[in-house]
Amino acid sequence: MSDQRPSCREMLSSLSEYLDGELEAELCAAIENHLAECENCRIVVDTLRKTITLYHQHAEQDLSMPEEVRLRLFIRLHLEDFLKSPG
Questions:
Q1: Tell me: the pLDDT tens digits for 7-38?
Q2: Are 45 and 20 in contact (CB under 8 A)?
Q3: What's the CA gap between 41 and 73, in Å, rounded?
Q4: Is residue 37 in some structural domain?
């Protein structure tokens, strides 16, 4: 990132790693400072966090999802690395 404050685009490009706790502390602090000042990015982060939480809650309930829908969802969320064949 170019300076201490990431732009919205830069922040969003690191969002997955940020939410997964995979970024170094300095970059996390810069993102958190950005979020404190940028309502739009806060909305994106909050929405993604809620989506992940809902997904995990429903996955634990063992609700079946048609494979085609599951595949489209994972691709749309850029989670292709987590695709596993059911069973």
A1: 888 888 888 899 989 999 999 999 999 999 99
A2: no
A3: 22
A4: yes
pTM comes to 0.58
With CA atoms as reference, report the closest residue to 3 among 37, 27, 36: 27
What are 65-74's pLDDT values in tens digits? 788 888 888 8
Q: Which residues of 45-73 are buried (b: 16+ CB within 10 A; e: fewer)?
A: beebeeeeeeeeeeeeeeeeeeeeeeeee
Contact 34, 41 (CB under 8 A): yes
| Domains of the chain: total | 1
| Containing structural domain, residue 53 | 8-82
Specify the amino acid at residue 75: I
Whether 50 maps to a domain, the answer reads yes
